[in-house]
Amino acid sequence: MKRINEDIKQKQFKRVYLLFGEENYLKLQYRDKLKQALMSEEDTMNYAHFSGKGLSEGEIIDLAETMPFFSEYRVIVLEDTGFFKNAAEKLPDYLKELPDYLVMIFVEAEVDKRNRMYKAVQKAGYAAEFSKQTEQTLITWIGGILKRNGKNITRADAEYLISRTGTDMENIYSEVEKLICYAYERSVITRMDIDTISVEQIDNRIFDMVRAVTERNQKKALDLYYDLLALKEPPMRILYLIARQFNQLLQAKELSGLGYSQKEAEGKLGLPGFAARNVMNCAKQYTKEELEAIVRDCTQTEEDVKTGRLADALSVELLIVRYSAK
Predict the structure, then answer these.
(1) Is the separation of the CB atoms in 107 and 75 below 8 Å?
(2) Is 17 helix (H, G, I), strand (E, B) or coil?
(3) pLDDT tens digits, one per residue of 268-320
């Protein structure tokens, strides 16, 4: 990101950029930053946008060979092309000899770094990976958005907001905008505002249900399950998320058994700090053997549904009842 910002500041652009990774918000933000720095919004003659798989490499190259009209640059944006996962025949060689007036911007969710296109971009331009941001980065970012709008939030409440919304920046930005409008003339965003306005992610509700199971609070666990069904969540997706949560508890238990500190375990689990702490605390309520048994039972439940021995909604309900019983 620093490299792209420096290129924009110095107005010295690479011939090709690849923006890839999990954090879609940042990819699109930097795509737009580059486009705005390279050309005016009104200039549609020297801008082209391609999206999706199955694009014609020949058509892209023909357009790239067309000189810009009354402009320093011709800009071509290509999104989710699949060129960086599957074989591209012509473009890798073409990237070696791009004309000086051309800037190509690829935006991809996934890339194979062994791919010829990826290696060609590295040689001819710049590949920037946009990963999920750390909890601290997100808290600072949220604080910055609020400050620009004349509002503040405590660190604890910013962390609480992330725990409800997840770490996707597009989703967080949407929720922060709603909070700014809701607070109106008030200068501080409170936890009550967050509970009133923000939409809690399904994964969080699943974890609340798992925590209720852990606490042997059967009524709460079943109520949360019925709420998810009322929201039209498929029972098999709920089962998948339950199994994933218990797998994370098992991983946390194993890491703890190997002597990892909570901070070290957070990195190994690949979860934000608040989520990792919740998982580590929840795992303490089980033995390793109990968690292994639950994970196996989740797998067996899925098989029972697929083979027609149990109905999907009933199978998940029975699983919850079994492990939340006192």
Answers:
(1) no
(2) strand
(3) 777 777 778 888 888 888 999 999 999 999 999 999 999 999 899 999 999 99
**In the structure encoding, which two tokens stand for residue 189, read together?**
């965003």
CB-CB contact of 66 with 101 (8 Å): no
Distance CA 38, CA 273 (A): 39
Q: Using an 8 Å Cβ cutoff, are 246 and 210 in contact?
A: yes
Question: What confidence score (pLDDT) does residue 13 get?
Answer: 96
CA distances from 93 to 75, 96, 98, 279 (A): 19, 6, 10, 48
CB 198 within 8 A of CB 278: no
Distance CA 280, CA 286 (A): 11
Question: What average pLDDT does range 194-207 have in this prediction?
Answer: 85
Q: Which residues pair with 79 in a beta bridge?
A: 51, 107
Please enumerate, as own/partner, the contacts of 252-257 that have beta carbons within 8 Å and a separation of 24 or more. 252/276, 252/279, 252/280, 252/282, 252/283, 253/283, 253/286, 253/287, 253/288, 253/291, 254/288, 256/280, 256/283, 256/284, 257/288
Q: Which long-range contacts (CB under 8 A, 24 or more apart) does 55-59 make?
A: 55/81, 55/83, 57/88, 57/89, 57/90, 57/91, 57/94, 58/90
Helix (H, G, I), strand (E, B) or coil at 46: coil
**Is 156 strand, coil or helix?**
helix
> What pTM was estimated for this model as a whole?
0.73
